[in-house]
Amino acid sequence: MSAIHPTITEVLSRTFRVPVAEILPESTMDSLDMDSLAVAEFAVVMREALGVELDPGTLHRDTSLAGLTEFLRASAGGQAPVGNAR
Questions:
Q1: Which residues contact 9 (CB under 8 A, 6 or more apart)?
Q2: Closest CA to 52 of 21, 79, 15
C-alpha cells in the first residue's frame, strides 16, 4: 500500500473508532460497519486530510481500502483514475 494507507488507517481508527486490526487492504466500508452516513462523513474527512474529492459515485459501502488507496493515489498524483474506487 502507499503512504495514503496510513492516513486512511488513522482516520478510520481515530474518527470512526474502527479497530486497527480490522483495517486491511481487502476491508470494505461495509465490513468495517460503516453505514452510508459514516461513508459520507469519511469522504469529507479524507478530502480535508488529502485534498482529494471523493464524490458519492466514487466511494461506496463495497469499496475496498485497496481500491480507495489506488484512487486517492492516482487523484493526488494528478492522474485520472480508471473506473471508480471499487
A1: 20, 23
A2: 79
Residue 32: what residue type? L
CB 73 within 8 A of CB 4: yes
| Cβ neighbours around 73 below 10 Å, total | 18
Backbone angles phi, psi at 61, to 5 degrees: -65, -20
Locus of grid cell 488507517: 9
pLDDT of residue 56: 65
Cα separation, 26 vs 28, in Å, equals: 6
The cell for 68 is 480507495
Whether pTM exceeds 0.90: no
- Spans of the chain, pLDDT less than 70: 1-2, 56, 77-86
Q: Are 16 and 42 in contact (CB under 8 A)?
A: yes
